[in-house]
């Protein structure tokens, strides 16, 4: 399988198949099928690879400054594609540098965090060696490979290799960092050069080589697929490391760059060694929450479908065959008109659905069940709104034959593809419209509700609506809950406990409802995606509030949920883009990991009664146990706002402890009861985390489990 070029225009590259280098590396692996996840983020390229037997699949993207955002979703995509859970992995491989300080630290931290959570070894390999494998194998044992990365500040990271008889690498000298004009090279019959250092210092390096290289490419980057190839050999040879021994290599402080003689070894100060450990430890602990779950943790697998830095994308909806998404777009700068765009779900460039001029703004676009028509809210001059229709290719735009008075929003199709439900703006009521005859039927509710966005169930017998009781006050979207309205007009809240919610959408089988809510959000304007069963059970929060996910919808096969989420745009602005995530599809408990089993039920079943940190349990039947969980939830909520990383250390620690035995959480809660009281009165979180570490160690010692939560220094 040919190596992937490093320069790919910033797009995600996908490849899979039998990798001969990996096949050779694992051919003498004596266990079951080797499953190895590799990470490489030392340069501008962000890549992840998964070895499964003698097959490797990979993702690679040029994503400067977006590595932390992209790497975990890439890993989740690969595991999902291979049909593997995290606990099926045998080891984590990582490019340990040299390279950009932040990128190297991120990769090693992620590898350590995953390995700690999954109790796996780590195989750390040179990012320069991985880069060297980007050079083509010319079959000449006398050819040397110079791997060179632009280290900025007038320097390069460099290393020299030759290929061995099995296609691996033999280092000709140690790695180094230096100015290109003082680089000393070993003798070689011929040269190949790869890496960004060649693009920056080509003329200087040609002088150092003394000959014209057989192959040179300055647009190559270290790739995780080659990290995996090298790591598979190391793992087979028994050279994997405990996570805490897999350390980054920065090189920056080495004193020369001679490929001849001894290279001085850096001896950092004790303070610097401690600082380096802390820099790696904190991100590693952040990964415990994401990795300790035995199945699918919240937010894993989220990927952006659109990424236009100059556009605002909103309100996605799947085509009935699941192959396309339509959404509303307008310009980031200057606002402008909302227009319906279409994009292939599997990837591609979005384009306006209608080729010609569109007489109205297009919002809340919805495909018909048969896929032949599309309905949307058309907003004309002066803000007048009505339901409009167009054919599936964006042609034949026309206004639906519904009454002109009142203004109509949020069209939702009935399963017959002939009737549309719409919300009347003037009085916040519902009506159905026959798009062939224009016949209208007003839908009353008991109790009397003021209704916003509504959605018809797949069987047409129910309506899920964002609504509030009509009690003489003005309509306010943030006061909505999700209500279910039967065919006779009788309505009841989806959830027994009052829970803010809006923009409901049904699962294809009608058993669940996904919606957005800001309940529990530290910023009221920021929403998260929630899902619940139609009987009100199994409430789950699927995304975090900082992503501000809105207008979620299921895919036709119920495997995905699409929504708009907050992403970085031009000029430091943030606005919505379309994204998708895999749906757990498991009903109650769904994708919740062990700590979410502990914390989420309380978070989902409480309501604020005034003031930060004050909460009221909606279910006190659990007695002291429920109270402890309620208080732990409140502490975590406060920690999340006030202490940043400390809250995630707390989350990861709780997960680790709960993975040993769910009963240990209650024992821990009892042991740190006084510390929780101190946090509630003083707001200091760090002492609490320290107390929890100490108490957890004592519990593990009593339980005969040693070393699992040790944090040195």
From TrEMBL:
Assigned GO CC terms: cytoplasm
Subcellular localization: Cytoplasm
Keyword Cytoplasm carried by entry: yes
UniProt keyword annotation of tRNA processing present: yes
Record keywords, A-Z: Cytoplasm, tRNA processing
Residue stretches making up the Gcp-like domain: 61-186
One BP annotation, GO: tRNA threonylcarbamoyladenosine modification
A Pfam cross-reference name: TsaD
Gene3D superfamilies from the UniProt entry: 3.30.420.40, TolB, C-terminal domain (2.120.10.30)
UniProt cross-references to NCBIfam families, sorted A to Z: T6A_YeaZ
Similarity-based family: Belongs to the TolB family.
Protein name: Gcp-like domain-containing protein
């Amino acid at each position: 399988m040919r190596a992937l070029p490093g320069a790919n225009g910033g797009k995600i590259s996908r490849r899979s198949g039998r990798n001969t280098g990996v096949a050779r590396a694992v051919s003498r692996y004596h266990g079951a099928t080797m499953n190895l996840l590799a990470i490489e983020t030392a340069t501008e390229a962000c890549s992840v690879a998964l070895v499964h037997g003698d097959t490797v699949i990979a993702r690679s993207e040029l994503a400067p400054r977006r590595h932390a955002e992209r790497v975990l979703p890439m890993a989740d995509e690969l595991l999902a594609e291979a049909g593997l859970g995290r606990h099926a992995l045998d080891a984590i491989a990582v490019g340990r540098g040299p390279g950009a300080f932040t990128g190297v630290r991120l990769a090693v931290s992620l590898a350590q965090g995953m390995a700690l959570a999954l109790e796996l070894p780590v195989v750390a390999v040179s990012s320069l060696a991985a880069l060297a494998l980007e050079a083509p194998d010319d079959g000449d044992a006398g050819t040397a490979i110079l791997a060179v990365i632009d280290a900025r500040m007038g320097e390069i990271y460099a290393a020299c290799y030759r290929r061995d008889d099995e296609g691996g690498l033999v280092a000709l000298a140690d790695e180094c960092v230096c100015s290109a004009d003082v680089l000393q090279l070993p003798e070689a019959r011929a040269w190949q050069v790869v890496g960004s250092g060649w693009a920056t210092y080509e003329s200087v390096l040609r002088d150092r080589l003394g000959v014209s290289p057989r192959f040179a490419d300055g647009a190559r980057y270290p790739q995780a697929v080659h990290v995996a190839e090298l790591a598979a050999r190391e793992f087979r040879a028994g050279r994997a490391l405990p996570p805490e021994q897999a350390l980054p290599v920065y090189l920056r402080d080495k004193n020369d760059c001679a490929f001849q003689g001894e290279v001085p070894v850096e001896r950092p100060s004790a303070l610097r060694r401690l600082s380096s450990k802390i820099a790696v430890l904190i991100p590693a602990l952040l990964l415990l929450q994401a990795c300790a779950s035995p199945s699918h943790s919240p937010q894993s697998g989220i990927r952006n479908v659109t990424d236009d830095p100059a556009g605002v994308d909103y309100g996605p909806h799947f085509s009935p065959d699941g192959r396309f998404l339509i959404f509303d777009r307008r310009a980031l700068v200057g606002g402008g008109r909302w227009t319906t765009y279409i994009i292939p779900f599997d990837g591609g460039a979005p384009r306006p659905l209608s080729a010609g001029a569109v007489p109205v703004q297009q919002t809340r676009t919805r495909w018909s069940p048969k896929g032949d028509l599309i309905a949307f809210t058309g907003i004309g001059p002066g803000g007048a709104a009505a339901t409009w229709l167009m054919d599936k290719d964006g042609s034949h735009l026309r206004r639906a034959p519904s009454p002109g008075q009142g203004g109509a929003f949020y069209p939702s199709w009935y399963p017959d593809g002939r009737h549309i439900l719409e919300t009347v703006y003037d009085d916040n009521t519902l009506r159905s419209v026959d798009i062939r005859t224009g016949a209208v039927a007003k839908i009353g509710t008991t109790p009397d509700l003021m209704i916003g966005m509504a959605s018809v169930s797949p069987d047409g017998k129910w309506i899920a609506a964002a609504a509030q009781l009509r009690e003489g006050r003005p309509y306010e979207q943030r006061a909505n809950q999700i209500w279910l309205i039967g065919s006779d007009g009788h309505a009841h809240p989806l959830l027994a406990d009052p829970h803010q919610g809006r923009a409901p959408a049904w699962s294809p089988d009608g058993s669940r409802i996904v919606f957005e809510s800001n309940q529990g959000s530290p910023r009221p304007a920021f929403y998260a995606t929630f899902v619940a069963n139609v009987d009100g059970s199994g409430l789950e929060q699927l995304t975090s509030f900082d992503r501000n996910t809105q207008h979620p919808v299921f895919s036709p096969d119920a495997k995905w949920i699409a929504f708009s989420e907050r992403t970085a745009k031009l000029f430091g602005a943030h606005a919505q883009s379309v994204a998708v995530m895999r749906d757990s599809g498991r009903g109650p408990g769904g994708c919740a990991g062990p700590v979410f089993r502990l914390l989420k039920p309380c978070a989902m079943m409480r309501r604020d009664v005034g003031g930060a940190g004050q909460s009221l349990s909606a279910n006190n039947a659990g007695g002291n146990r429920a109270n402890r969980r309620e208080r732990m939830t409140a502490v975590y909520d406060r920690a999340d706002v006030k202490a940043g990383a400390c809250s995630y250390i707390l989350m990861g620690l709780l997960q680790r402890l709960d993975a040993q035995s769910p009963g240990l959480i209650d024992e821990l809660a009892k042991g740190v009861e006084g510390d929780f009281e101190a946090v509630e009165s003083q707001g200091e979180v760090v002492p609490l985390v320290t107390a929890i570490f100490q108490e957890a160690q004592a519990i593990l010692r009593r339980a005969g489990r040693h070393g699992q939560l040790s944090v040195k220094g």
